[in-house]
Amino acid sequence: MNCELTCSVEVARPELADVTETVVNLMGFLRDHGVADDLFLTQFELAITEAINNATEHGCAGAQEKFYRARLRLCPDFAELRVVDPSDFGGWTGEAVLPDDPLAEGGRGRYIMTRMSDDLAHEKEDGFHVLVLRKRFPARWHYQSGEMDLTVSSMTDELVSSYEMISTLVGLGEWMATAPDMYAFMDGALEKLCTVTGAETAFVRFEEQGRMVLLRQWGEMLQPSIPVIGTKDPGVEADVFRTGNEITLTADFLLPEGDPLCGLLLGGFIAPVLFKDQRRGVLVVGRTQPAPFFDAGKLKIARMVAEYLGITVTMGELQKRRGAEERALRDLEIAAQIQISLMPQEFSSVEGLDLYGTCRPALQAGGDYFDLLVLPDKSILCMMADVMGKGLPAALLATMLRTNLHAIVASGQTDPGEIITQINSLMSRDLIKLEMFITMVCVWISPDRRHVRTASAGHMASIVQDADGTISQIDGTGIPVGIFHDSGYSSHTTPFASGARLLLYTDGIIEASAPDDTMFELAGVKACLARTRTLCARESVEKLLDEVSAFSNHQAPSDDRTVILLSRTQ
Contact, 463 vs 473, CB < 8 A? Predict the structure, then answer.
């Protein structure tokens, strides 16, 4: 019986170490599959080493895309290596001669490849150079884990249009649409396969984290199968999974001791289960009673069932993933509703101020947070924070921050620096455990609106625009909350004249990216403020967010965008 196996390696931007690793893998493949002639192995190793090195050193030289692909084909009479590189090399001319200088590079590799192989050729594949080496075995090679009948692959398609094939195909399609779940479909498909082919048993394994798990079985084997095998273990099933090649085991096959199929069958057909060329597992169709082997039509049905199994399992996984994503999405939507509801929604007239703020999360829930509190003495306390990260975890921490802020303010504390210090004391231990942090800025506006007191924990610089349009900034000082438990923060007082405006924002504004990867930056914010100086707070904020969105080509934001603008009107 004949068998043909392949092993492929692809390396991007190869280096010398990659050559060594590739040769080791290819030679290991030969030895693992029964090639034992020492002279053959020594000579072929020299040849393929030069071939891979040639692709690395010369084939990739000057090429924009640097890579090589090596494909080793193991046939009964010969081994063939095809090495693809990005060059347009057309092949050597003249006789291969060993250079006089044994250390010289030019010609040495070609001479070794010519002498150590039986055939050396150059081809083109998709515009790339292909070097083909072929070396014949001294004696026919035999697969040690059972032989593959190559006549299966060359059988005619005479039964493709037969009633049996059509009936099976239609039946599987109907069952796929009506089966209550993935496992029920697999049971029905394996039963149908055994009925149509006359096999006594069939089972399917699927890969899970480097293992192949026995997922479903129909019929009885001569003895129980091993529930789990490794994808790198020796044996027919693992070989079929790794190579993607079918293997036929006829009644006279011999398996080495330790192969998981030993003692299970009197003959069988093992096919890879694929989905869009992705290897998902293997299908085994077996005989446990003496009988002729499966004909071409039966093998085609087995392949078809393998395809359906690959589709069904992948669909089941996608549906499961979609269900989880939908549940997670719903959780995020609920979290977003709660989070938004906890931020100020109404900005009624506050004596002496025109103010407006909004948050546009990148996900349904985000880590940005802001708050505006009118204190009993008519002063205003404003907080803006950005929790590291996005999604539900960041939203939960933002909610905790709000709770702590309100508790601290309720205790009578109004100094921004002391507020941040107390928040850090309350939250830092949890943040350190979670390896997260929060940047924030806290602003207190005096009852007479003549000055502001600010404190920052690693947040973006606050921007002050005077009535005449002059723009300055209050840079953030202090480290983010959650870095050190004992961090302290101080306040800084700044005049706030009539007609002045104060802008607070998160990094989602200045880090918004254009299609060419340039960022909006602080300059973009200042330019927008200059253009909107005569507009009210709400119109100015909406104009800024519109400009940021247009700058990023209206793409979905990669980070939350939060803005507060406070304008002194008296």
Answer: yes
pLDDT digit string, tens, across residues 33-81: 888 888 899 999 999 999 999 899 888 988 889 999 999 998 888 999 9
Residue 59 to residues 1, 114, 146, 373, 530: CA-CA distances in angstroms? 38, 18, 38, 68, 57
How is residue 365 written in tokens? Answer: 């829930």
- The CB density around residue 13, as the number of other CB atoms within 10 Å, is 10
Phi-psi region of 511 (alpha: psi -120 to 50; beta: other; left: phi over 0): alpha
Same domain, 167 and 231: yes
Asked whether residue 314 falls in the same domain as residue 365, the answer is no
- The Cα–Cα gap between 56 and 86 comes to 10
The CATH number of the domain where 16 resides is what?
A: 3.30.565.10
The pLDDT, as a whole number, for residue 66 is 92
Give yes or no: residues 216 and 313 share one domain: yes
Structural domain includes residue 340: no
Are 46 and 2 in contact by the 8 Å Cβ rule? The answer is: no
Model confidence pLDDT, tens digit, residues 230-243? 888 888 898 999 88
Residue 470 lies in a domain: yes
Name the helix (H) or strand (E) containing 565: strand 561-568
Boundary (domain end) residue, out of 136, 162, 184: 136
The Cα 436–Cα 78 span in angstroms is 59
Which tokens sit at 519?
């960022």
Tens of pLDDT, residue by residue over 341-396, are 778 888 877 889 999 999 887 766 567 889 999 999 999 999 999 988 776 777 78
Ordered DSSP codes for 467-513: TTS-EEEE---SPPBTS-TT-----EEEE--TT-EEEEE-HHHHT-B
**Same domain as 112, residue 163:** no
Domain that holds residue 420: 345-568
Tally of domains within the chain: 3
